[in-house]
Design a protein that fits this description.
Elements: E1 11-13, E2 16-18, E3 22-27, E4 34-38, H1 42-49, H2 78-87, H3 96-105, H4 117-174, H5 193-201, H6 205-218, H7 223-235, H8 237-246, E5 259-265, H9 267-272, E6 282-288, E7 295-300, E8 304-310, E9 323-333, E10 339-340, E11 346-353, E12 356-362, E13 366-373, H10 375-378, H11 387-396, H12 399-409
Antiparallel strand pairs: 1-2, 2-3, 3-4, 5-6, 5-13, 6-7, 7-8, 8-9, 9-10, 9-11, 11-12, 12-13
Helix pairs in contact: 2-3
């Protein structure tokens, strides 16, 4: 038996249409749209046309006004009555009263109104025409549905294959031990003289200044040597700058590794929650702020999602493989969406190089994660433009908004939500610093266009 679902467009002849039913169209309310009206049965139409409102309220057997009274009578629209004139082959009128008057006059002595044979024939022929068209359209729909199902199946197989390969990589990443570093990213191996010189060349200037200041203070005998080197440096500034710009280290991480999306594996999630499969992949998006004051990120780890922000500020100019970035995070749990924030929400990411990361995070205890840079999803995105949105979300996770949401869960109104101010959300660069670009307002016209011409996507 053919399904009653309708796939074909209605067929039409004159004023009549056939789709899911036989109907005519008439102008709707205000005349700006058209409404469909099927044929009302003769008996029902006669009742509508001869309706007489009750003379008073409904009474009980005791003669008292009943508590339950019938709903107020609402007559059908003028468009309805005008459409019935067409259905019964009568002369068309444009007003409601005229249509009702001529419909009632058309009834015979037995209160019957017959449908003309020619209209019944039109209905029969339109139904046959529509049924044929619907049969063809239904077959086409089924073919497309099967093709789409096959396409989705192949995509799922390909995705599963890629995910399996990626999960294998992520497992290897999670077990990676970085040569020359411990889990914190600190160098533990003794370096050769040449390796030490190369490492010094690419060290951040701020770190070098700290080392020199400490050496001069702790070893006064080296003060003369330092002052002599300062004098030489001042005389050869241009040469030194050229030399500095030429210095590169194959061990340094590529800048793109701090600006993009990572696919992340978290065994903890599937172990704790049945809705997450063992091969479930999660996402982490990160980007350094405009002046590298902080590393910001947006994560979706299944059971928890939100924003992370590095605690070290400012970030060094270059990062060796194995560099560790500690962060605080704020977010909300899946399900009821209860927010989480505070000094205990912490973690770290270790950048292993070649687009690989591993990390650790405090939530529901602690868990580890491993990630791989997603090149395809990271292209053609101006990641720095996402930071204002991430910062806004960060500031929305606060005690006031938590209390508002908590009150709302009990069906009460807890007030308007509000975000923290910049100072409240700890966006300054810290004591002794000259400030942070995280405090500044971003100018999309002036700041973002520079260096990012032709790229407009934003990742939220």
């Amino acid at each position: 038996m053919m399904s009653t679902r309708h796939f074909a467009s209605p067929v039409t002849r004159g004023s009549f249409f056939y789709g899911s039913d036989f109907y005519v169209e008439a102008p709707g309310s205000g005349g700006f749209s058209r409404e469909r009206f099927t044929r009302e049965s003769s008996g029902s139409l006669y009742s509508l046309l001869t309706y007489t409102p009750p003379s008073g309220p409904v009474l009980t057997k005791a003669g008292k006004v009943a508590k339950r009274q019938p709903s107020p009578y609402r007559d059908r629209t003028g468009a309805f009555y005008c459409a019935q004139l067409i259905h019964y082959g009568l002369k068309e009128y444009k007003t409601k009263e005229a249509a009702k008057k001529h419909l009632l006059q058309a009834f015979d002595a037995d209160h019957e109104l017959k449908v003309p044979e020619n209209i019944l024939l039109v209905e029969k022929e339109l139904k046959e025409e529509y049924d044929k068209a619907n049969l063809v359209a239904g077959r086409l729909y089924e073919e497309r549905r099967l093709l789409e199902r096959e396409r989705v199946r192949k995509e799922q197989e390909e995705r599963s294959r890629k995910n399996a390969a990626l999960m294998k990589q992520l497992k290897e990443i999670s077990e990676t031990k970085v040569a020359g570093t411990d889990d914190s990213g600190a160098m533990v191996e003794r370096l050769s003289d040449k390796a030490l010189r190369d490492a010094i060349k690419v060290m951040p200037e701020g770190d070098l200044r700290k080392i020199v200041a400490k050496v001069v203070k702790d070893v006064p005998e080296l003060r003369d040597a330092v002052e002599l080197q300062i004098s030489r440096s001042q005389k050869t500034t241009q040469k030194a700058n050229k030399g500095k710009s030429a210095v590169k280290s194959i061990n340094n991480l590529r800048d793109r590794e701090f600006r993009g999306r990572f696919d992340v594996a978290i065994p903890f999630m599937s172990e704790q929650w049945s809705q997450f499969l063992p091969d479930e992949l999660f996402t982490l998006k990160i980007c350094k702020s405009m002046k590298s004051s902080h590393l910001w990120g947006k994560f979706d780890f299944g059971g928890i999602s939100g924003i992370l922000r590095s605690t070290s500020s400012p970030l060094p100019e270059s990062f060796p493989a194995g560099f560790k970035v500690e962060f605080l995070w704020r977010g909300e749990e899946s399900g009821e969406g209860e927010s989480s924030f505070g000094k205990d929400n912490k973690g770290y990411i270790v950048f292993l190089g070649d687009g690989r990361i591993k990390g650790h995070m405090h939530w529901m205890g602690e868990f580890d994660f491993a990630g791989k840079y997603d090149t395809e999803q990271s292209q053609n995105v101006v990641w720095v433009k996402s930071i204002p949105h991430w910062k806004s979300e960060w500031r929305s996770y606060n005690q006031h908004n938590y209390d508002v949401a908590n009150t709302a869960r009990w069906g009460n109104w807890g007030g308007e939500t509000r975000n923290e101010k910049a100072a409240d959300s700890d966006t300054s660069a810290g004591k002794g610093s000259s400030g942070s670009d995280d405090e500044e307002d971003f100018d999309m016209e002036d700041d973002w266009d520079s260096g990012y011409q032709g790229r407009s996507n934003i990742a939220f």
